[in-house]
Amino acid sequence: MALPEGIFQGFDGERSYVSRRLLALAEAIPAEKFTWRPAPGIRSLSEVYVHILITNFYLLSTVGPAVPADIPPAPEQTLTAKADVLHWLTRSLDAVNSAHAAADTAGLQRSIDVFNLRHSTAESVYLRIILHANEHLGHLLGYARMNGIAPPSLKD
């Protein structure tokens, strides 16, 4: 059995794999389902995606690139339309990719304080971005199945 492209291929491979899965699943979900939530008080599909993209931008801001000034206020409440969510999700994933590609070894190993809560390295922040995306991809896959949506298969 061949593994999908990206699995066990370092940061860029794993980042690419989870990014493709997130986007493919978002594309497969009908627009009218983006506000669906499994129960009151639990994040909707759009809120989970927006949580991922906000976290991407905020974690990325700890290693350099600023959170975009044009991100809508209260995005988890205001970004609910599929097209808007996809736009911002793609933008956040591209920002992570570009920032990591531009970093050199010394830059990745530099010491940083993450939100004044934890001492870490830039490389660890990038790893956290991937782990966080994978964690919520699991939620989204469950949400899709609960709505009768077969998650797309990535064969590349």
Helix % is 55-70%
Tell me the fraction of residues in β-strands, as a range.
5-15%
CATH topology: Four Helix Bundle (Hemerythrin (Met), subunit A)
Distance between the termini: 12 Å
Largest sheet descriptor: 2 strands, antiparallel
Mean pLDDT: 90
Structural class by helix and strand composition: mainly alpha
Q: From the alpha-carbon coordinates, what is the Rg to the nearest angstrom?
A: 16 Å
Major β-sheet strand ordering: 1-2
What is the overall number of helices? 6
Low-confidence stretches: none
Taken from the alpha-carbon principal axes, the silhouette is globular
How many structural domains does the protein architecture include? 1
CATH arch. level architecture = Up-down Bundle
CATH superfamily: dinb family like domain
CATH class: Mainly Alpha
How many beta-strand elements? 2
Q: What is the H-and-E element order? A: HHHHHEEH
Please characterize this protein's 3D structure:
With about 160 residues, the chain is mostly helical. The protein has one domain (about 10-145): dinb family like domain (Four Helix Bundle (Hemerythrin (Met), subunit A), Up-down Bundle). It has six helices and two strands, in the order αααααββα. The protein is globular, with a radius of gyration of 16 Å. The two termini are about 10 Å apart. The mean pLDDT is about 90.
